[in-house]
Amino acid sequence: MEHERPGEFDLIRTYFAPLASDPGSLGLTDDASVYHPRPGYELVLTKDMLAANVHFFSDDPPEAIAAKALRVNLSDLAAKGAVPRAYLLGLGLSDDWTAQWLERFACGLSGDQAAFDVTLVGGDTIRSGSGLQISITAIGEVPDGTAVRRSGGAAGHVLYVSGTLGDAAAGLKERLDPGFLNNLGLTDDDQKHLLHRYLLPQPRVALTGSIRSFASASMDISDGIFADARHLAKASGVDLEIEIGALPLSPALRKIQGADKDLAMVCLGGGDDYEILCLVPSDATEAFEASAADASIAVSRVGTAVAGEGAVRLLQDGQPLGVGQLHGFRHF
Amino acid sequence: MEHERPGEFDLIRTYFAPLASDPGSLGLTDDASVYHPRPGYELVLTKDMLAANVHFFSDDPPEAIAAKALRVNLSDLAAKGAVPRAYLLGLGLSDDWTAQWLERFACGLSGDQAAFDVTLVGGDTIRSGSGLQISITAIGEVPDGTAVRRSGGAAGHVLYVSGTLGDAAAGLKERLDPGFLNNLGLTDDDQKHLLHRYLLPQPRVALTGSIRSFASASMDISDGIFADARHLAKASGVDLEIEIGALPLSPALRKIQGADKDLAMVCLGGGDDYEILCLVPSDATEAFEASAADASIAVSRVGTAVAGEGAVRLLQDGQPLGVGQLHGFRHF
């Protein structure tokens, strides 16, 4: 960790060194860290950046900002069937950072390290002179040759998603337009659910083994089910037919759907779900579903891969929907 | 690579996908990349962040910004004796980015990939809504157990630095205070040399083998020789005695020294050198020097480790200098 002004060295040592429990991290006191790959395993590497007021709000709890930054990376690893091992943290601090903020940020990382069995192995902290930016590189491992890509799907494979979709987008809309959920008649508990889903993604790390064992192609949903389905379809060289009625909705989102059907569609395409989207060969669906149930992760069949070249078709009760509804909406 | 607005996907594909020549990078079209560690090697991981107008100027040539961001990371790897293999690139684009800027930035990376035999394996691009920020995670490899840390030095070991010191700090001062070098009577060529040394660090990748074979402790100099010597001394649990007259100066810096001795000291402590600072056991100095000469990298003996607890003493013709001169000055 380099280039801190006086005082920042001490803060790093105080708050981040305790997170670097692996001996290879050298207590974050060296130029670099040493990582020993396990023989017979390959590494899966991912890097996601987050910026204040783009991917989170500056006044979000620091613990949640930290956890979100880590979790969006763990979500990528899970989608590849990789078990998370380590991460490097890049922190571009805004000018108004405080020791208390940093302490709470480190606390958020610490909680997630315990929850997801992952450890800090290095990083860098700078003063960015502008808004907070976080850059995390996460490292996972899979037995050699078993990483699940986006490209392994084939016609006939069944399309699954984990959890529920659209919640985070609805939570984000409430943040940007406070009162909108109230106007739709949602209860306090519904609102809390949606806001929490935006604030704190739940990476499906528990589904890692099921994905690795049974999925032919997999990714996480960050740009919205419709946009990401196109990515999966294109990479696998198939078309995907998605039955709208089969998309899993939380009770809160179902209420939004009841009040305003179009708005529910916008939420579904809104992104930030960090659920898994994967294809499973039809002879493995039973085993996949059983394995997911063992891992206590809900998975729903939402469609099928058919011969094609990367198109996504939405069906309602088997009838095609218009192409204008296929676009994911990153932000409102 | 996620969260790009429409159009950015295409730019990434156009400019960055060609840099991802390793099949494990999956052409940057997946959530993550796959990295196959070589059996018998451990990985060295480092991450440096750079922000516009903190670590470079926004109007620097994009090729140079890209190269600097990569090179400061390669410098960390070289200091550990690690051969660079791969890197992940995080790019927080400012609002005024253009396709032409991005093309030139990618071109800078491409040139350095060829020069240093390293390849892009993943990353993320976001719009940061503020100044450009770059976060690179670099991966190097060393045979198991041979990474050189800061902590291996012992009393009696000889202190070396590579190249020349203080040039980049003088170049930075010229950028901030144009005409200052002219006022000191430096020629155009001298000025170009110093400005170039700030703009484009020269990571001592060629010295990697010599460091791994002969150095007991090593780091790169980014915060200035005096500050970084303290880091090395502390990590190795020794005191370091540095002979000021032995510090290697370029002809340009020697002219600054002739005009203003104190200013030369400030430049020496200014940082951004990206030279190697290492300790070599006295029975290995001859072999280390021969190995560095084979690699065509100049190295200079600048001091000695003695029993102690992390102090740095500057000597002038064997006489101690005052403690007030020991502080590195990150910026003017």
Question: What topology does this entry show?
Answer:
Two copies of one chain form a homodimer.
Chain A: H1 8-15, E1 33-35, E2 41-51, H2 62-79, E3 83-93, H3 99-116, E4 119-127, E5 133-143, E6 158-162, H4 167-176, H5 180-183, H6 188-199, H7 208-214, E7 217-221, H8 225-236, E8 238-243, H9 251-259, H10 261-268, E9 275-280, H11 285-294, E10 299-307, E11 312-316, E12 319-320
Parallel strand pairs in A: 3-4, 8-11
Antiparallel strand pairs in A: 2-5, 3-5, 6-9, 6-10, 7-9, 8-10, 11-12
Helix pairs in contact in A: 2-3, 4-6, 4-10, 7-11, 9-10
Binding site for Mg(2+) 1 (chains A, B): 48, 124
Domain PurM-like C-terminal (chains A, B): 155-310
Binding site for Mg(2+) 4 (chains A, B): 31, 46, 76
Describe this structure in words.
Two copies of one chain form a homodimer. Chain A has 332 residues and is an alpha+beta fold. Chain A folds into two domains: 8-143, 60s Ribosomal Protein L30, Chain: A; 158-325, Alpha-Beta Complex (Phosphoribosyl-aminoimidazole Synthetase, Chain A, domain 2). Chain A has helices spanning 8-15, 62-79, 99-116, 167-176, 180-183, 188-199, 208-214, 225-236, 251-259, 261-268, 285-294, and strands spanning 33-35, 41-51, 83-93, 119-127, 133-143, 158-162, 217-221, 238-243, 275-280, 299-307, 312-316, 319-320. In chain A, strands 7-9-6-10-8-11-12 form a seven-stranded mixed β-sheet. In chain A, strands 2-5-3-4 form a four-stranded mixed β-sheet. In chain A, a hairpin with a 2-residue loop joins strand 11 (312-316) and strand 12 (319-320). In chain A, helix 4 packs across helix 10 and helix 7 (208-214) packs antiparallel against helix 11. The longest helix of chain A is centred in the first third of the chain and has 18 residues, at 62-79. Chain A is globular. At the A-B interface, strand 1, strand 2, helix 2, strand 3 and strand 4 of A face strand 1, strand 2, helix 2, strand 3 and strand 4 of B.
